[in-house]
Design goal:
Layout lengths: L2 H25 L4 H17 L20 H9 L3
Length: about 80
């Protein structure tokens, strides 16, 4: 067999196995009505929560002066 024939057979086997598995993925999807009903409620709750201003541009080097790694991490998380 030549390289072209081997490559062609490999591609065809891959395509056939992918095509054979496609219907099984569709059957495992959850019902869209239950998902759609839950999303607006979660979005409303998230919109009500107060947002902290992002502090990306501020300097967080003062956190490095703290004594333990845990304190440094907690201080630096405010700037993420």
């Amino acid at each position: 067999m030549s390289m072209k024939q081997i490559a062609f057979l490999t591609i065809m086997l891959f395509a056939a196995s992918t095509w054979a598995q496609a219907p099984a993925k569709d059957a495992a999807k959850p019902e869209p009505m239950k998902e759609a009903a839950a999303k607006p409620e979660a979005m409303k709750e998230a919109a009500k929560a107060p947002r902290k201003p992002r502090r990306w541009s501020e300097d967080a080097r003062h956190c490095l002066e703290l004594t333990s790694n845990t304190e440094v991490i907690k201080c630096a998380e405010e700037f993420l």
